[in-house]
Amino acid sequence: MNKSNCLVIGAGLLGRTLTLALAHQGHRVSLFEATQSDIPNAAAPVAAAMLAPLAESAITELNVVRMGQYSLERWPSLLQLLPQTVFFQRQGTLIVWHPADAGEAQRLSSLLQRNQALLPSLPAPQSLTGSDIGVLEPSLANRFERGLYLPQEGQLDNRELLSAQEAGLYNFQSQGHVQVHWQSPQNPEALYAQVCSGDMKPAHFWPDAPTWVIDCRGIGAKKEWTRVRGVRGEVVRVHAPEVSLSRPTRLIHPRYPIYIAPKENGVFVIGATEIESEDLSPSSVRSTLELLSAAYSVHPGFAEARVLEMNTQLRPTLPDNLPAIEVTQPHFMRINGLYRHGFMITPLVVDCALEWIQTQHTSLAQQVGLHISVNS
Ligand SMILES: Cc1cc2nc3c(=O)[nH]c(=O)nc-3n(C[C@H](O)[C@H](O)[C@H](O)COP(=O)(O)OP(=O)(O)OC[C@H]3O[C@@H](n4cnc5c(N)ncnc54)[C@H](O)[C@@H]3O)c2cc1C
Q1: Mean pLDDT of 343-348
Q2: Start-end of CATH 3.30.9.10 domains in the chain
Q3: Nearest to residue 50, comparing CAs of 352, 351, 345, 365?
Q4: Mutate to test the pocket of ligand 1, among 16, 17, 29, 33 (most ligand atoms within 8 A of CB)
Q5: Fold annotation for 5-45+159-227+320-374
Q6: CA 96 to CA 128: how far, in whole Å?
Q7: CA–CA separation, 292 and 251 (whole Å)
Q8: What is the mean pLDDT of residues 93-101?
Q9: Residues of 165-182 as b/e, b for ≥16 C-beta within 10 angstroms?
Q10: Whose CA is nearest to atom 23 of ligand 1?
Q11: How far apart are CA 211 and CA 71, in angstroms?
């Protein structure tokens, strides 16, 4: 296989995962990030990191569900390559509702059954009685009359992942295969012009290999990729040692799908609002009240929880709410539109990008229906 040099711009979820995948394949990479390593402006550290293809099929297209299925199987092998342990589990998703929302629950249940029938490799959703819910989540015994269980759906700890990926990047850096540049905002087009003129050639790059520029800036790409927009999401992170939930739990809610995603050590992420706005101001009182009262209505133990953080971030989104890979010039690739599914689909998106860089084929992308456009 021919080796390439790669300049990856943006060290969020996508940029880190892609850089590591390229390095594992023997390519040489320089990674540029506008901020420091804790990436305070990125969506990735704020996310709940649920990997829930069937649950998300209620609001996305089946292609994205397929990408999620592929990625769920792929995450364990990617995590195994990292030098630190990352919490990852596939205990399924629980969906519950209060009696007033039974009509909406019926609609959702029919939709999920229809989608599972269209993608039969997905495990079928299971209807639960109140006592089934108590068996699955003893701390919710006698709280709900009915529920739904989506087996094998997953979740991971996003912050553990980002920090393990950072450690992985430093390992490659110490071997001379990767160079990481924090606090180094870049304009990919300007970098590409420098590559074409021969002015950009980092010392660790292969001397005679082609050099790719890959734009992974998420919402930061908006100025040049004008179709990218941000979709505001607010989440609350709490410490609730009195609550014990072993899997992401969604509450049917008239305005947003509210979830409670357990992390390790009694920490929960409660989210998320979804607002068509690029306003990055702190969470509104209304959103915070709705998220926290929804969590309290699921489990009264949240009353004594301590609020650790309230975060607002933008989900990088394209007009059709689908991810896209564009090769706009030879050796210039941009990837964006991971929207609310970054963790759910990144392994697939990265594998499709690698396939193009290494072979100029799109067979994997075609299999799952990921759009790759090539300007030849
Ligand atoms: C509230 C919320 C909840 C979410 N929950 C989930 C979930 O449960 N499951 C799921 O799958 N997904 C979830 N997501 C979505 C997920 O977080 C995103 O899809 C994912 O982070 C997008 O990855 P990215 O790398 O494209 O962008 P980001 O993670 O935002 O990273 C982009 C990076 O590019 C950098 N950058 C920008 N401009 C420049 C520049 N000029 N030069 C260099 N670097 C630059 C930024 O600083 C940033 O670090 C959620 C998102 C939000 C906001």
Answers
A1: 98
A2: 83-157+229-313
A3: 345
A4: 33
A5: FAD/NAD(P)-binding domain (3.50.50)
A6: 9
A7: 12
A8: 95
A9: bbebbeebbeeebbbbbe
A10: 13
A11: 27
Ligand 1 pocket list (CB less than 6 A): 9-15, 32-35, 39, 41-44, 46-50, 185-186, 216-218, 220, 233, 235, 271-272, 313, 315-316, 338-344
- Determine contact, residues 271/236, Cβ cutoff 8 Å: yes
Confirm or reject CATH 3.40.50.720 for domain 83-157+229-313, answering yes or no: no
Question: Is the predicted pLDDT of residue 256 greater than 70, yes or no?
Answer: no
Pairing mode of beta strands 50-51, 249-251: unpaired
Which of ligand 1's atoms lies nearest the C-alpha of 311? 1
Q: How far is the CA of 231 from the centre of ligand 1 (A)?
A: 11
Q: 10 Å Cβ neighbour count for 286?
A: 10
CATH 3.50.50.60 domain range(s) in the chain:
5-45+159-227+320-374
| Residue 314, H or E segment | strand 306-317
Residue 183 DSSP code: S
Tell me which amino acid residue 228 is.
Answer: V
Residues with Cβ < 8 Å from 343, sequence gap 6 or more? 13, 47, 49, 50, 51, 156, 158, 161
- For 108-126, write each residue's pLDDT tens digit: 999 999 999 999 999 999 9
- What's the pLDDT at 253? 81
The model's pTM is: 0.97
* 205 has a pLDDT exceeding 80: yes
Q: Show the tokens assigned to 156.
A: 């991971």
User: How high is the pLDDT of residue 254?
Assistant: 75
